[in-house]
Amino acid sequence: MSLHKNDIPILEYDTSSAALYGLKKEQQGLKLPQKAIYGLLGSCIDEYAAANGGTEVTVIQTITRNYPVYTVKYKGEEVCLCQAPMGAPAAVQNMEILLACGVKHIISAGSCGVLTPMPENEFIVPVRALRDEGTSYKYLPPSRYIDLDAGMTEHICNTLGSRGIACRKCTTWTTDGLFRETPEMVEHRRSEGCDTVDMECASMAACARFREASFGMLFFTADSLADLNNYERRDFGVASLEPALGLCLDIISSFTTGNEVK
């Protein structure tokens, strides 16, 4: 029997890869490049595709909005570009479609909140994510953390280094509860070694591992929860959107299967 039952529903895990709702329709007649940038980067992806000869190859239709999927050429490599929705379930839903259509190597980028004092608009690379969300538990057995793909993480750091950017690594707290980041919980997560907080990293890493795809994440620092008595909204890292996309293009275009660590 593949289903492992538990009194707490979120901890129940089915090892079976079969699913009643599949992706056959999305797979028909559409073959995407193996390399993809799947970022939480505002309008930057659409603007980059429009300015650099990108081709809109399909649109992922959802009940809230549609997400164009582009292909572009960058340094001789064909790369898929797609904006990721905010939040773990939505981000993984669209990621599944990309993977079903041929994507095998994904770099994502997005903002993170900081739990320790850090300036805004600094790049930071998560190497481990605390699984305080629900989606990752549909893809991997219960555990407190998920380690991100070591090969992709190393490649991200090497690429940052080649651009003169220090590679600071972190443990991130991935949570569904944006408005439930209470002072006591923030302090607890910080005591566990979490430096940042986000809403998608653990779930996307889990989905990629389940589907045997490479996945890496690049954060840029945004708001600060470091002072429990003084939340700093700051500018949510807006100044890092375009630089992050540029870094992702360099990272994914130079990624090779030799970088993978299973």
Write the layout of secondary structure elements.
Elements: E1 3-4, E2 13-14, H1 24-27, E3 35-39, H2 44-51, E4 55-61, E5 66-74, E6 77-83, H3 88-100, E7 105-114, E8 123-132, E9 145-147, H4 150-162, E10 169-175, H5 183-191, E11 196-198, H6 201-210, E12 214-224, H7 241-253
Parallel strand pairs: 3-6, 3-7, 7-12, 8-10, 10-11
Antiparallel strand pairs: 1-2, 4-5, 5-6, 7-11, 8-9, 8-12
Q: Tally the helices.
A: 7
Largest sheet: 5 strands, mixed, barrel
What Rg do the Cα atoms give? 18 Å
By DSSP, the count of extended strands is 12
Order of helices and strands: EEHEHEEEHEEEHEHEHEH
Helix content bin: 25-40%
Which structural category fits the helices and strands? alpha/beta
* Content of β-strand: 25-35%
Shape: globular
As laid out across the biggest beta sheet, the strand order is 7-11-10-8-12
User: Averaging pLDDT over every residue, what do you get?
Assistant: 94
Low confidence ranges? none
Separation of the first and last Cα atoms: 27 Å
Account of the protein in words:
This protein has 262 residues and is α/β, with parallel strands linked by helices. It is 27% helix and 29% strand. The chain contains seven helices and twelve strands. The strands form two sheets. It has a five-stranded mixed barrel. Strands 1-2 form a two-stranded antiparallel sheet. Strand 4 and strand 5 (66-74) form a beta hairpin. Helix 3 packs parallel to helix 6. It starts with a strand and ends in a 9-residue tail after the last helix.
